[in-house]
Design a protein that fits this description.
By secondary structure, the protein is of the alpha+beta class. The protein folds into 2 domains: 73 residues, Penicillin-binding protein 2a (Domain 2) (Alpha-Beta Complex), CATH 3.90.1310.10; 320 residues, Beta-lactamase. It contains 21 helices and 20 strands. Helix 13 runs parallel beside helix 15, helix 13 packs across helix 16 and helix 13 crosses helix 19. The longest helix is centred in the middle third of the chain and has 18 residues. The protein starts with a helix and ends in a 7-residue tail after the last helix. 41% of the residues are buried.
Length: 556
């Protein structure tokens, strides 16, 4: 009986009185927007496991005009709304004066407050329609990792992720829906089925990242201060748990505002920590010494004679200052960053053995990080028959790798010799209610745990005794670290510039039960020669913040 009455009522509405309701609908029909925008969220994770929005959908209005309804001139109308429109005054007037136009959009991201202000102006012809768009509450926070959406450029021309996590997880975040009108009556009496969203992608949802917002904001601030102070072309850093691969902060500056990308370049949208390769210089010496220890070619007590230079295949390798040290132990190779020392280690190991270790560190491979466009390292020199190529590789010249690959390789020193998979997403929360925890594989065992402990002890001595004369060492926390200063290759003339350098710095702490590894670099800093001058203080600022923020207990 109830079903019969419902059918009769629908017949009465849609057939008998169809014309009347059609007229009422049309009189109230203000605007239909195809695919009112919807997309899954990207979420930061705080130290207390609370979730904060990194990318979400916000609501507002489209500002439009029907020129045929204007009671003022086009110029007067555009002047009245000049603070709200997305185009120039001249272009606004030109569009309004174009004959035959009945609907012109002037701005598509009017906030609720702005809409209230426009309503107060009471301008005839001004129209406001509901709209939704992608919004990034952190503005520039972790921008190169978060990425953003843009039109796909294909036949569908849909808004899809084109950089960063937005692109990497686009299949999860993208929510394709059928047309939804902002007018209820128009849809009610034209097709009842259109009242309800119909999703084409049933596996969509939100992604929860390992990025910690307070740490990320601190890192961005330190990077910007460093970049500004030394007028560098680029400064970047990664903060990662070396035992799990979870990245808690990662960015490079100059950055850009995710909500206002005007003026930013494509180079700023890309993520150089994953997509660019660099010769890092002496930070790589830590890997060479670790390989020498692990292979049994050296012990911490081993000594060699440093004459200040070494000639291989007619090429002469010198220490950074050209000075000889005489007979020195292995610790001094790290303390004084001796190029001749790590070159000597390679001769003791044998270049094939050295190459095998560096290949095991995966410096030429993708790390598997969940970001798009990851680059491979350039390590062809490790296939050379010449001894000199292996010697230069031992101190980080002649081979180039991504910052994330360098971080993963150096993390083996902290992680009992085992590789990890760096990552930024911990789980997916599907719209269906299902939660999928993401598991990342442990990598190979490159070094023995004993080697990991020994190299950590040596790198701790670098900080305690050598780095800035031991003045930056912390009294209650051990830190294992190494600086790197590399000449930048000249792509035109060949060889290396004499006055252009890349500075790098890595460290992990506490040295023997590490919770974080920090890798930093800055490109072409001005007015300084060595990484110990540019990156020591920024590294220590980051380290002290992490120790205090996470209440890391003392280990000495």
């Amino acid at each position: 009986m109830v079903a019969f009455l419902l059918v009769f009522r629908l017949y009465h509405i849609q057939v008998v009185n169809a014309e009347m309701y059609q007229q009422r609908a049309e009189s109230q029909y203000v605007h239909t927007k195809t695919d009112l925008y919807s997309r899954g969220s990207i979420l930061f994770s705080t130290r207390d496991e609370a979730l904060l929005s990194a990318a979400a959908i916000t609501s507002g209005y489209v500002l439009a005009v029907n020129p045929t309804h204007l009671t003022v001139t086009a110029s007067e109308f555009c002047i009245s709304l000049e603070g709200y429109i997305d185009t120039t005054f001249e272009r606004c007037v030109q569009r309004l004066e174009t004959p035959g136009r009945t609907y012109i959009e002037l701005a598509d991201r009017i906030t609720n407050d702005q809409a209230d202000e426009i309503i107060e102006l009471d301008i005839d012809g001004a129209l406001l329609y509901k709209n939704q768009w992608r919004y990034y509450p952190g503005d520039s926070l972790a921008a190169r990792s978060i990425g953003f959406v843009g039109f796909s450029g294909d036949e569908s021309n849909e808004l899809r992720g084109i950089y960063g996590l937005e692109r990497q997880y686009d299949d999860i975040l993208f929510e394709k829906r059928q047309v939804m009108s902002v007018n209820f009556f128009a849809e009610l009496f034209s097709n009842l089925g259109d009242m309800v969203y119909k999703k084409d992608n049933e596996s969509s949802g939100d992604i929860v990242t390992t990025l910690e917002p307070s740490v990320s904001r601190m890192l961005d601030s330190v990077l910007q201060e460093t970049n500004d102070k030394y007028e560098s072309k680029l400064t970047g850093a990664i903060v990662m748990d070396p035992t799990t691969g979870e990245i808690v902060a990662m960015n490079a500056v100059p950055g850009f505002d995710l909500n206002d990308r005007r003026g930013a370049t494509i180079a700023q949208f890309q993520n150089p920590l994953v997509e660019n390769v660099y010769e890092f210089g002496s930070t790589i010496k830590a890997l060479t010494v670790a390989a020498g220890l692990d292979s049994g070619a050296i012990t911490p007590e081993t000594t060699y004679y440093d004459s200040g230079s070494l000639t291989l295949n007619t090429f002469t390798i010198r220490n950074f200052d050209g000075r000889a040290r005489g007979t020195v132990p292995m610790q001094e190779i790290l303390n004084q960053s001796l190029n001749t020392g790590v070159s000597w280690i390679v001769t003791e190991m044998g270049k094939e053995n050295f190459r095998d270790y560096f290949l095991d560190f995966k410096i030429g491979s993708e790390t598997g990080i969940d970001l798009p466009n990851e680059a491979f390292g350039l390590i062809e020199n490790l296939n050379s028959p010449r001894d000199v190529e292996y010697a230069t590789a031992s101190f980080g010249q002649g081979i180039a790798l991504t910052p994330i690959a360098a971080t993963r390789a150096l993390a083996t020193l902290a992680n009992e010799g085992r590789l990890v998979t760096p990552h930024l997403v911990s789980r997916i929360e599907y719209d269906s209610g299902e939660v999928k925890e993401l598991n990342y594989p442990q990598g190979n065992q490159v070094l023995t745990p004993e080697t990991s402990e020994e190299i950590s002890r040596m790198l701790t001595t670098v900080v305690d005794d050598a780095l800035r004369g031991g003045t930056v060492a912390l009294p209650n926390h051990t830190i294992a670290a190494k600086t790197g200063t590399a000449q930048i290759a000249d792509p035109v003339e060949g060889g290396y510039y004499e006055d252009k350098f890349l500075h790098s710095f890595f460290g992990y702490f506490p040295a023997f039960e590490p919770e974080y590894i920090v890798f930093m670099y800055t490109v072409e800093p001005q007015g300084v020669r060595y990484a110990s001058e540019t990156l020591t203080e920024p590294f220590m600022d980051i380290t002290k913040f992490l120790i205090n923020y996470y209440s890391i207990p003392p280990d000495r």
